[in-house]
Write a structure and sequence with these properties.
Helix content is 37%, strand content 15%. The chain is an alpha/beta fold. Strands 4-10-9-8-7-5-6 form a 7-stranded mixed beta sheet, with helices on both faces. The two termini are 36 Å apart. Bound molecules: pyridoxal-5'-phosphate. Pyridoxal-5'-phosphate binds next to helix 5 and helix 6.
Length: 397
């Protein structure tokens, strides 16, 4: 069981704000500033270079990886933190392509986050352009899994619509044709229970600044299935992925297991914030979190539909087919979202016309949902978005 009023008290949120954007940037855990201050003053300030040994900085990427591992159903010792998600996608993909040298096709879908696709394009270019990134509609992924594939690169929950892929099913199909699977958990980790181990994922990666609340630019994580851990060859062969980093050998030897997915120096200060953010998760049962997320999202969908019929729900209604966000389509979506933000309901906008609301039970409750519905109803029905002020686009939408 999880006490969600207790978890809510662990976040520093402005009063009266309904923050439905924890799927994009989680809020500040109250314990994070003191934990960072401690890392700065007591570790960096007082220990200087000694912090690497005395404060355990070097081991943190593995230790924090395991704490995330619990949330995604990973076997202990097979998840590591570092770099950014785009880089982790590249690493996983490069390893897969090398593990399937006779295959030339990488499959993804048109709903995937662009950076994942761009990283695949860059890798293919580097490999001489002999591979193909094949993109199909999300609904067509299953039928497109064929023996040509080296790997499928799939984001479990669509960042725009909130639609969720059936991970065990697609993984089983990929394995049946000899393809590997890379699951991007950007909108899954901390959003719903994930079982990378039992589900058979070969590689998985995700970020920690969304549902895990570790702060802007917080590092990513990568999981490699135990059966591949000693065989996956890192394309980004940095010194901290070396078997003996402090032997300073002139040539690369891959480290043990998941250690080889490390690249360079860990972001120690950012890891302090992640550490504090993960303390919140230690009290959370993922099954209870999912129940609450579904209860709140059901309520939100029903309420918004009743209040403003002109908003079209694009998130699937079936529980199994969605993550923890709700998206609506509206031609004035951008201006409408700015008008909502001005009234204390913070979601975001994704081109061309998607209004996105993340529902995060750690700090959003039924009263927030009901208040949000009332404000959304007023903004849409009274066309309160119809003002020049709401039409100016910022760089980040
Ligand atoms: C948020 C997100 C990213 C972002 O990658 P960064 O390297 O952390 O900027 C990548 N992929 C998906 C699917 C995402 O949702």
């Amino acid at each position: 069981m999880t006490d969600f009023s207790a978890t809510r008290a662990l976040f520093d949120l402005p009063p009266d704000l309904i923050y439905l954007d924890g799927n994009s940037l989680g809020p500040l855990p109250k314990a994070a500033p003191a934990r960072m201050e401690q890392a700065m003053r007591e570790e960096w300030g007082a220990m200087l270079i000694g912090g690497w040994n005395k404060a355990g900085w070097m081991e943190q990427p593995r230790a924090l990886g395991d704490r995330i591992g619990r949330l995604i159903g990973a076997e202990p010792g097979h998840t590591v933190v570092g770099d950014t998600l785009s880089i982790k996608v590249f690493q996983a993909l490069a390893a897969c392509v090398e593990m399937r040298p006779d295959r030339r096709v990488i499959l993804s879908d048109t709903g995937n986050f662009p950076s994942d696709l761009y990283m695949a394009e860059g890798l293919i270019r580097m490999l001489g352009g002999r591979h193909e990134l094949r993109l199909v509609d999300p609904e067509a992924v299953e039928d497109a899994i064929t023996e040509e594939l080296a790997a499928i690169l799939i984001t479990e929950v669509d960042y725009r619509t909130g639609r969720r892929h059936d991970m065990p099913r697609l993984t089983a199909k990929a394995h049946a044709v000899g393809a590997l699977t890379i699951w991007d958990l950007a909108h899954s980790a901390g959003a719903l229970p994930v079982e990378v181990g039992r589900g058979g994922a070969d590689f998985a990666c995700g970020c920690t600044y969304k549902y895990l609340n570790a702060g802007p630019g917080a590092p990513a994580f990568i999981y490699v299935a135990p059966r591949h851990a000693g065989r996956a060859v890192p394309a980004l062969s940095g010194w901290l992925g070396h078997r003996a980093p402090f032997a300073f050998e002139p040539s690369y030897r891959a480290g043990d297991g998941i250690d080889r997915m490390r690249v360079g120096t860990p972001p120690v200060l950012a890891l302090a914030a992640l550490d504090a953010a993960l303390d919140v998760w230690d009290t959370v049962d993922m099954a209870t979190l999912r129940q609450e997320s579904l209860r709140l999202t059901d309520r939100f969908i029903a309420g918004v539909e009743a209040a403003c019929p002109e908003l079209e729900v694009v998130t699937p209604r079936e529980h199994d087919r969605r993550g923890s966000q709700v998206s609506f389509r509206h031609p004035e979506g951008y201006a409408a979202m700015q008008a909502l933000i001005a009234r204390g309901v913070v979601g975001d906008f994704r081109a061309p016309d998607i209004m996105r609301f993340g529902v995060t039970p750690l700090f959003i409750d039924e009263a927030d949902i009901d208040r949000a519905i009332t404000i959304i109803g007023a903004v849409m029905n009274e066309r309160l978005y119809d003002a020049p002020l709401y039409r100016t686009r910022s760089a980040v939408t």
